UniProtKB/TrEMBL annotation:
<feature type="binding site">
    <location>
        <position position="336"/>
    </location>
    <ligand>
        <name>substrate</name>
    </ligand>
</feature>
<dbReference type="InterPro" id="IPR015424">
    <property type="entry name" value="PyrdxlP-dep_Trfase"/>
</dbReference>
<dbReference type="GO" id="GO:0019265">
    <property type="term" value="P:glycine biosynthetic process, by transamination of glyoxylate"/>
</dbReference>
<dbReference type="GO" id="GO:0008453">
    <property type="term" value="F:alanine-glyoxylate transaminase activity"/>
</dbReference>
<protein>
    <submittedName>
        <fullName>Aminotransferase class V</fullName>
    </submittedName>
</protein>
<dbReference type="InterPro" id="IPR015421">
    <property type="entry name" value="PyrdxlP-dep_Trfase_major"/>
</dbReference>
<keyword id="KW-0663">Pyridoxal phosphate</keyword>
<comment type="similarity">
    <text>Belongs to the class-V pyridoxal-phosphate-dependent aminotransferase family.</text>
</comment>
<dbReference type="InterPro" id="IPR015422">
    <property type="entry name" value="PyrdxlP-dep_Trfase_small"/>
</dbReference>
<dbReference type="InterPro" id="IPR024169">
    <property type="entry name" value="SP_NH2Trfase/AEP_transaminase"/>
</dbReference>
<keyword id="KW-0032">Aminotransferase</keyword>
<feature type="domain" description="Aminotransferase class V">
    <location>
        <begin position="28"/>
        <end position="323"/>
    </location>
</feature>
<dbReference type="GO" id="GO:0004760">
    <property type="term" value="F:L-serine-pyruvate transaminase activity"/>
</dbReference>
<feature type="modified residue" description="N6-(pyridoxal phosphate)lysine">
    <location>
        <position position="193"/>
    </location>
</feature>
<dbReference type="InterPro" id="IPR000192">
    <property type="entry name" value="Aminotrans_V_dom"/>
</dbReference>
<dbReference type="Pfam" id="PF00266">
    <property type="entry name" value="Aminotran_5"/>
</dbReference>
<keyword id="KW-0808">Transferase</keyword>
Length: 367
């Protein structure tokens, strides 16, 4: 049963019935261990297709944050240099996490409503700082923006930076990530966004270069990536395998791939375009600046000055619509419609827009 009939939170998204059924399957019977590996490999291969990579994809039990953290923790030693491209909550957060490991961090920072359209500051920073890793966030979910990965990949290759790290938590499956074409060494995703699965299955695509770094750092903590390197041979998961989660992630990946990935990308793009136009038509302001690249998976909107976020949220929920607030310095100022995965659906969006127009009707454009 749905708690809210019109779910538009930018993750965790509504889990479709067919995925819930897979999730509820009982895997407790003895003798099933062997087939876990079939499931794991099938899921890995589907994630490789979604990320457009031949790199190994590791599936870890945990949130997207775990993937972000563990990739830093397993690839960096104290004193290693990291250049963090930050355009929002997660970009700045990744820089902080790298610092907490003892990395020396330089940030190319932009405002939250901007995207990285000009690579020259990054190029200059790489020249000056000679980093071991560049970090970036593909879709900054709290801002509804999309940063280009291809330019960063080309720059990394041309300037000889060893590693490109990309948070693809809210983009993978909803928009092309093209890990290999963009030379992304560490692409970090989560199950609960465009894959439409329950939360807490993280996935990490890891290039050969990144595996070399993992060996160099030789980190062996609970969250280490190293044990996953030879998992095919050892067939030993570092902890209890999360069958239900992997099965649901596999089903989510299959659902995306069935009509072809392009279908998913086009659907997300056209729904997002429609959503942005409707928002502007009802007199609300989009959050990303006109120069920024908006994300096809989430639309961020400024909270009208005459209707505080808590009241807006309350009135929307009363009518069955639940949207996302935002985080950090955007809290209370921005709300978001998540049209990703199962929620990239025209009929659902129409319902959401009808409720939204009804609730904000008459509040008018603020500026
Ligand atoms: N990165 C981005 C861009 C996100 O939007 C999120 C979650 O919303 C995360 C990372 C963290 O994922 P999780 O909430 O699964 O830890």
């Amino acid at each position: 049963m749905d708690v809210y009939p019109i779910p538009m939170v930018p993750g965790p998204v509504k889990v479709p019935e067919e995925i819930l059924r897979v999730y509820q399957t009982n895997y407790g019977a003895p003798g099933l261990e062997a087939s876990f590996w079939d499931l794991y490999h099938e899921t890995e291969s589907r994630l490789q297709q979604i990320l457009e990579t031949r790199n190994r994809v590791v599936i870890q039990t945990g949130e997207g944050m775990l993937a972000l953290w563990t990739a830093l923790r397993s690839c960096l030693k104290p004193g290693d240099r990291v250049l963090s491209v930050a355009t929002g909550v997660f970009g700045y957060g990744i820089a902080d996490m790298a610092r907490s490991i003892g990395a020396e961090v330089m940030t190319v920072g932009l405002e939250y409503h901007e995207t990285l359209n000009d690579l020259r500051p990054v190029e200059k920073a790489v020249e000056e700082f000679n980093p071991r890793m560049i970090t970036a966030v593909h879709c900054e979910t709290p801002s509804g923006t999309l940063n280009p990965l291809d330019g960063l990949g080309k720059l990394k290759e041309a300037m000889g930076v060893p590693l490109l790290y990309a948070d693809v938590v809210s983009s993978a499956g909803g928009t092309p990530v093209r890990v290999d074409a963009c030379h992304v060494d560490l692409a970090l995703g989560g199950s609960q966004k465009c894959l439409s699965a329950p939360p807490c299955m993280a996935f990490l695509s890891i290039s050969d270069r990144a595996w070399e770094e993992i060996e160099r750092v030789d980190y062996n903590g609970y969250d280490a990536l190293k044990p996953f390197r030879r998992i095919e041979e050892t067939r030993r998961f570092p902890y209890t395998p999360y069958w239900h989660g992997v099965a649901a992630l596999n089903a989510g990946a299959a659902l995306l791939l069935a009509p072809g990935l392009d279908e998913s990308f086009n659907r997300h793009e056209s729904i997002a375009r429609h959503c942005r136009k409707a928002i502007v038509d009802m007199g609300l302001d989009l959050f990303p600046s006109p120069q920024a690249v908006p994300s096809p998976t989430v639309t961020a909107v400024r909270v009208p000055e005459t209707l505080p976020w808590e009241e807006l949220d309350r009135r929307l929920r009363q009518k069955g619509l639940v949207v996302g607030g935002s985080h950090g310095k955007l809290a209370g100022k921005v709300f978001r419609l998540g049209h990703m995965g199962s929620q990239a659906d025209t009929a659902l969006l129409e319902k959401a827009l009808t409720v939204l127009a009804d609730v904000v009707g008459g509040t008018g454009r603020q500026r």
